[in-house]
UniProtKB/TrEMBL annotation:
Presence of the UniProt keyword Zinc in the record: yes
Organism: Xaviernesmea oryzae
This protein's name: Threonine 3-dehydrogenase
Record carries keyword Metal-binding: yes
Alcohol dehydrogenase-like N-terminal domain boundaries: 26-139
Length: 344
């Protein structure tokens, strides 16, 4: 079967033929992949930005951690009646053996492995995942939309961390898929949402198409001027990973406002803490969502399919994965969905 793999440390990914998987180990299921999205993490891995060195021991490893598919076979200990179930899966797998796992604190597992990062992922026809990581999909949920579950759980967690409430004014920095998803979920909570980007016309246009009116492109208008008009904000959620934008936007945060960092920053940010103290503001970080968030997000996706479908900018066969990576890298894409196909 064809697989998009990280073969060696350094820049690049390879589309190569690998042996077809046809069974799952004990406790796991074999999923025939239908759709798998390319995300920022995949781009970082392809470019080999610092922080992914631990992947080296898993190479060659198939990438792809945002996916949907159908259970094609089950390993020992998993009920065979699950074959045919349409699922998505939490990519983060835990070991069940370390001190944290044994204490029931799986979130702090010291041997965590990500599907599509530390173990084989979904940019291929078949992937194995622990059955406990799977979430069943409602019949009416389109498989491409279902593959948005993982990134949308990151967005859901960000909106929860930021404590977004009805009637609040929220600024989302960065119109990539995570920023877009945060905007969508914050709006669904009744907030008034502004999204800011820089040189991001295709991605801001996608937001406009789903009804967002307050969009700021700082290549066209000075940032402070635009934010002064639209703010101040009860919460700012940062999903751009640009350190300088933290301090540059905090002056537009209300007293007692919450600044939530979601982007991965390659450098430290300099922040005026005196003003932060006097304004009684908070800075919070937000990362992986708890398992309970998954079914909530799946229900949201099922109820909002036509809107979410407009955030998938490219649908490509696996064989065209390289051009999908290129479009995502050039920020032309909102979300590239690789349609591996096969599932009913
Ligand atoms: Zn991702
Ligand atoms: Zn563990």
């Amino acid at each position: 079967m064809l697989a998009l793999q990280k073969v060696r440390p350094g820049a690049g990914v390879e589309l190569r033929a690998i042996e077809t998987l046809n069974s799952a180990p004990p406790g796991e299921v074999l999923v025939r992949v239908h759709s798998a999205g390319i995300c920022g993490t995949d781009l970082h891995i392809a470019e080999w930005t610092p922080g992914y060195e631990p992947m080296e021991s898993a190479m060659p490893v198939t990438l792809g951690h945002e996916f949907s598919g159908t259970i094609a076979d089950v390993g020992d200990g998993v009920n065979r009646s699950l074959i045919g179930t349409r699922v998505t899966a939490r990519p983060s797998t835990t070991c069940g053996k370390c001190a944290a796992c044994l204490a029931g604190d799986e979130d702090n597992c010291s041997n965590r492995k990500g599907v599509g990062i530390g173990r084989n992922g979904a940019f291929t026809e078949f992937v194995c995942v622990p059955y406990g990581n799977c979430h069943a999909l409602p019949d009416e949920l389109d498989m491409d939309i279902a593959a948005l579950t993982e990134p949308m759980t990151v967005c859901e967690e960000a909106v929860t961390t930021a404590d977004v409430r009805p009637g609040q004014k929220i600024l989302v920095i960065g119109p990539g898929f995570i920023g877009q998803g945060i905007a969508v979920l914050a709006r669904a909570k009744g907030a008034d949402v502004v999204v800011m980007g820089r040189d991001d016309a295709p991605r801001l246009t996608a937001l406009q198409a789903i009804g967002f009116e307050h969009l700021v492109d700082t290549t066209k208008v000075p940032m402070d001027e635009a934010l002064s008009k639209l703010g101040p904000f009860d919460a700012i959620i940062e999903a751009a990973g640009v350190p300088a934008l933290v301090q540059a936007t905090i002056p537009h945060l209300r007293k007692r406002g919450i600044f939530t960092v979601v982007g991965i920053h390659s450098r430290p940010a300099e922040i005026d803490l005196v003003s932060l103290v006097r304004m009684h503001q908070q800075i919070r970080g937000s990362y992986r969502a708890p398992p309970q968030a998954w079914d909530k997000v799946i229900a949201f996706l099922a109820a909002n399919q036509s809107m979410m479908s407009r955030l998938i900018s490219h649908r490509l066969p696996l064989a065209d994965a390289m051009s999908g990576f290129k479009a995502a890298h050039e920020r032309l894409a909102t979300k590239v969905m690789l349609q591996v196909g096969g599932a009913a």
